[in-house]
Amino acid sequence: MNSSPIKIVVMHDDLNEKDPLLVELGGKYGQKNVIFKRKSKEGLDYVLNNLSQKIIVILDLKFKANELSGVEVFEEIRQRTSLIYIIIWTASNLAEVKSENLVKFINNDALAFVHSTEDYTRILQLVEKAAHEMDVRVASVIEQWICSRPKEERNKPYIKYTNGKTYTLSDILNEIRQQSSFGKEVEKNILLLAIDLLTRGKETLNG
Amino acid sequence: MVSINIAYDNQALELGAYFEASKNDLVDFLAANHNDYSIHEIHSARCNEVYIEVRIGAINSQRYLFIAYSHGAEDCLISGGNSYVAVNKNTNLFTNSLFYTTACSAGHKLGEDLINNGCEAFIGYNRVVTVFSDEKQNVSIECDNCGIKMFILGRTIGDAFSLMKAYYTQQIDRLNQFGDILSASYLVANREALVFFGNPNLTIHDFA
Q: ipTM greater than 0.85, yes or no?
């Protein structure tokens, strides 16, 4: 199973392509892996159309009046998946953010909230942290494994619970992204497999 | 002559075909490997408490096998949304039985209650388990039926249980070797859900 590159989607309407953060990210992760969108809807569309990629989002909160707000983008992403890391990067002070929005960020696993006056190296550190966690997080590994399967294989009935429900690999992927109890059980099963193989002296995990 | 009673919920939505395929797999195995038995099939229409009371009540003065392929819960076996074997209802009927079921979760409470009510031995799963679809379905059936097949071949039920777990492990390694880690992981979970209660020294000859 090949490890695909991480995509960093920066949604911010006050930056330009020569911003030091974008230049640094491009240098470290590859220019083509840094997706810069000034318009929130374009950034959201990119994310939702590329869920099979490993994605880290750097998200401003305020966009122009006729565009989706950062909160709306955050919610849209979280409705589809819990596996994308989202860093809120904003000129708003924490006190200026509505409390119900803060609750949304906290309860839905926003990785960090960074004020734009902080040195941009803070963002770089957070991206590095998220990138590492993506590589070791079981859910992300399973996600990559399923996405590497041909589409027709992903849509065939794969397993049946003996309580009657049938799942395809695409269904399982969705459960993992939603971090449902079923999705978490899939993660747990993979860990059980790893422990089983390692304790029996079979160290190789193929695929 | 060994009395073998096989309940299978062939009318179950989603899994009726699987339950019937599991039953057929065992029946074919019996035909090939054992010739001193009588099989009584209990299909969906008969998987109810009334029929079970009549049928099991008529045979439970002697030892017999009871094998069940259906949905289950922690304290019962289920067909058509209703229990047909259940704690505090009819587990006392299963005196003298070897009770073998692939139903989800029945090993959690039903198994021990059967033993407490005179059942000689029980093999089942103590949580929700998964079966494979399509081309891997036979893997699930073979794993599910391995224990009872080993018993029919002459192993003690205790050894049959151990061999069933070993067979699961063999299939786990085979799937992993082909890179199907997700399927392998489900078999690990199923294997870890297997439970045995009762007398491990029973053999098929004790039921003749």
A: no
